[in-house]
Amino acid sequence: MSLEKIVKINKIEVVGDFKTVYVEMVTVVTDDGVELSRSFHRHVLSCDADISGEDAEVQAICNAVWTDEVKAAYEEHTNNDEFFPSAVSGE
Fold it and tell me: CA 65, 67, 70 angle in degrees (round to 5)?
């Protein structure tokens, strides 16, 4: 009996105006080459995220799509009172 657990990137998607990056990981457990289980986990990265702990492939995609223009637009959007009125007014 030889159990093996493999965790790897299954899918990377770039979505929306602010180039949000969705990273889907797959965990596969096998016993002597026979798959026992498969599970998925997804995490989301915005252009203001710290990506230093991400896989090199994820970092490369983030650095390619998160241009200065995208970052500026995202910052303007998140600082806009129209989108977050209670954060500004304290309600």
Answer: 95
Give the span between the Cα atoms of 36 and 5, in whole angstroms. Answer: 10
Matching residue, tokens 């200065």: 68
Domain positions in the chain are: 3-46+55-84
Global pTM value: 0.81
Nearest to 25 by CA among 53, 48, 58, 3: 58
The HSE-up count of residue 37 (CA atoms within 13 Å, CB side) is: 8
Q: HSE (CB half, 13 Å, CA atoms) of 1?
A: 3
Instruction: Please write the tens of the pLDDT for every residue from 26-73.
Output: 999 999 999 999 999 999 999 999 999 999 999 999 999 999 999 999
Q: How far apart are CA 72 and CA 58, in angstroms?
A: 21
Within the chain, strands assigned E span 3-15, 20-31, 34-45
